[in-house]
From TrEMBL:
It comes from Scardovia inopinata F0304. Residues 41-202 form the HhH-GPD domain. GO terms for biological process: base-excision repair. Keywords: 4Fe-4S, Iron, Iron-sulfur, Metal-binding. InterPro entries: DNA_glycosylase, HhH-GPD_domain. Signal peptide: none annotated. It comes from the Bacteria. This is HhH-GPD domain-containing protein. GO terms for molecular function: 4 iron, 4 sulfur cluster binding; catalytic activity; metal ion binding. CDD domains: ENDO3c. SUPFAM superfamilies: DNA-glycosylase (SSF48150). The lineage of its organism: Bacteria, Bacillati, Actinomycetota, Actinomycetes, Bifidobacteriales.
Length: 222
């Protein structure tokens, strides 16, 4: 049984994930800047390693845009070593900090009235920032609605009978067949991503999405 391709299905999946995984309260960060640095550091590593690196940055007193921009590359690399790929990630952290300072976003939290024209395009111009990282920064730090089409989201929908998209961009282009952003609050979209990540980890351990697909298929259409 293949789910109907409609935005109503996205609500059913969201509700089911919430029942299965519980509220996640994402993104796990004390400040917007910490969130953005975490989004860079988490690439190709486990979150536990990100926490180690964030603690190192915090203990060194440089967990701010100005301090990271001023930091010596080798010092920054040493502090974020637990996450791996430290040279590339240090360059991206520096580039993002420079971008934030250029846009007068030097405080730990992004002011609510901040408006950056073509925010996504601007973030993608930062060396080392890809589509997924740009979107999570938009969603969690700049409070701009978007759906995160990470690999877990794409695998989940493929398991539920939706088209299989091999890239983030391909899924984003076809977003309207699954979800309408107007149907969700900003907090719900943030929660949706957190739920999908947790479900994706579970699917990896169990080597199956059966725990979710069985629940969705068993639900009556409504």
């Amino acid at each position: 049984m293949t789910p109907t391709m409609s935005t109503n299905a996205s609500k059913r999946i969201f509700a089911t994930l919430l029942e299965l995984e519980g509220k996640q309260g994402w993104w796990p960060a004390a400040t917007d800047f910490e969130m953005m640095i975490g989004a860079i550091l988490v690439q190709h590593t486990a979150w536990a390693n990100v926490e180690y690196s964030l603690n190192h940055l915090r203990d060194a007193g440089i967990l701010s845009a100005q301090k990271i921009f001023e930091a010596q590359p080798q010092n920054l690399e040493a502090l974020i070593r637990p996450t791996g790929f430290m040279k590339a990630k240090a360059r991206t952290c520096h580039a993002l900090s420079n971008w934030l300072l250029d846009h007068e976003c030097e405080s730990d939290n992004i002011p609510e009235d901040t408006s950056i024209p073509r925010l996504r395009e601007s973030l993608l111009s930062v060396k080392g920032i890809g589509q997924e990282t740009a979107d999570v920064i938009r969603l969690y730090a700049f409070k701009e609605k978007c759906f995160i089409w990470d690999v877990y989201a794409r695998r989940m929908l493929a398991a539920l009978g939706y088209p299989s998209y091999s890239t983030y961009e391909a899924a984003l282009k076809n977003q309207d067949v699954f979800i309408s952003l107007d149907d969700y609050s900003l907090d719900q979209l943030g929660e949706y991503h957190g739920l999908i990540v947790e479900a994706g980890k579970r699917a990896g351990k169990e080597k199956s999405w059966e725990f979710l697909t069985s629940q969705i298929i068993s639900q009556p259409d409504r």
